[in-house]
Structures are given as C-alpha cells and as structure tokens.
Predict the structure.
Amino acid sequence: MQFISSPQNGHIKELKIFQEKAKKRRQEQLFCIEGEKEIRHALAGGFRLKNVFVKEAKTNIVSDIAFANCECIEVNAALFETLCYRKNTSTLIGVAHMKEHQLEGLKLPKKNAFILIAEAPEKPGNIGALLRTADAIGVDAMILVDPKTDLYNPNVVRSSVGCLFNVPIGIGTIAETFSFLEQKEINIFSAALTEKAKAYTLHDFRGNTAIAVGTEDLGLSKNWLAHNTTEIYIPMAGENDSLNVSVAAGILLAEARRQRN
C-alpha cells in the first residue's frame, strides 16, 4: 500500500479538486465520500471506488474483500485530518465513480409505485435531508427536477448520511418528468398553497403515486403547476406559513405510507 505524507502529492491534489470543484467532478464523473459507513453504503449500493485514502495506522479497515478492486492509499495522520470535514472522526475518504441518473433508467414496480419529486432544489443540505426522508419512508425512487445543485456535492453526500446510495435517483426537466410519469400512469400530487389545493389528509395516496415539493421560498413553479396535477397542502395552526422542505415532504410521505400499509 502506497504511503503519502506530502500535500503536494498528485493523489492529494486530485482529491482536493474533487472535493471543491463541481466542474471537475462532472468532467471526470468522480466524487468524494468521507466516512467508513458512507463508503460501505456506496459499495452496497453498487458504486465503484477508484481509490480510497486511509488514515495512518488504520489500514486494517480496508482489509476485506469490499476494497479489493480499488487502490488503497495510506495517508499521514496530520495530512489526513486536513482533508476531512469531520475532524478526528473519519478514517476513510473515497473517490468514487458517479452513476447515470436518466429518468428512463429508473426501475419502478409495475404496480403501486411510490415516488418523491423535488423541483429546483438548491441547498445541498436540503437534498441530503430529502434523501434521508425518502429512505426512511421507503419510496421507490426520488426525482430531482431541474436541480440547482450538483447531486454529488460533498455536502449532499455528507448530509444524506449514506442515503444518496440507497435511494434510486432520476434527474430531468419538467417536461421530461411529466412525460416519464404519464408513461408510467402515475398520479401526481403537488404540494402548493393555491385556491384549488385541498388538505393532504383528504386524498388517497394508494396506487401509483408521486408527491412533488418545491423550494421553501417559492414552492413549486408556475411551469410545474401549469400541468394537470392534484394540488394538496398541509394545514398549519401557527403563525408561520412555511415548513422546511424535508419536513413538509416527511409529513406528506408519512401519510402516504400509512395509507399504503
């Protein structure tokens, strides 16, 4: 196993680029994963590692068969800490190959498909939280519509706590998403504060169901709402008229799961 102690080493420079530069991640189709648990989730989810950086004296962590097909590199402890977001807790950082996320590649059940849709998500932390919610509820897939943030941003990877690797994800435009859902005969419920929206508890979420949420400040766009969907809202008893998007999604998805069970 190669040992690195210099920050000028080519492997270290490349790792930092993938951590910091979205353009480079897209060009090379590579991204970073920090943490042993997250890396093992990625491997279980079918992601391939290019290489993995191991903190000095922790090389036993990569001794099993899961790491047999990637280059393992031991890194000086002090240098390794400079590469980590979570100081003094991480022992592994991986560089992994991205997956394809075309909508036509999503594998859904023929009956009773259950999908979460997020339009124009911008904050990496929100995408990560939505993925955790989707994983906890047990949706069949999550669709990101015109996302404003790189799915493989390190903050998305980190905040999803490995759920990025557990939940099937599709990415597309509004037109592509509606075309895909119509082909699959999926009923679309749009979270929106409009005059025709009805309380979410009044609807039947069994069968082929997709629940769509928008951004916290603007909600779902006019272009989205111009399509024929069922509009729903969450009654609120307080003074505030908005919720964090992952909280709102969790409320809606939990009711759908309750009905579907």
The longest helix spans residues 245-260. The radius of gyration is 20 Å. The chain has a mean pLDDT of 96.
